[in-house]
Amino acid sequence: xxxQRLTVFANAADAIFTAEDGTRYSGAEAITAYFxxxxxxxxxxxxxSESLLSYGGTAIDMGTITMHPPGGGExxxxxxxxxxxxxxxxxxxxxxxxxxxxxxxx
Length: 106
Known about the structure:
The protein is of the alpha+beta class. Helices cover 21% and strands 47% of the residues. Strands 2-1-6-5-4-3 form a six-stranded mixed β-sheet.
């Protein structure tokens, strides 16, 4: 299931993911390895898009990620994603950049 969800990263050879701690993962292999490892500790993840803007072949998505670890509780973060539309073919959207930041108490 994790690999199915990551195909949008795998299609973009120049994809970069920045985790909450600032660690940068470049390329499909590194990003897939990160999410495969994370899925084992956070089996329930909800992604909620709050704003999606499209500018021709580029889109920007902002929202929240809520993760529920097996032992209970909740971990929230915010994300900013940049997507690029494939040229020709089906015109699918590929994630090319994603950055996450922790949600802190006000």
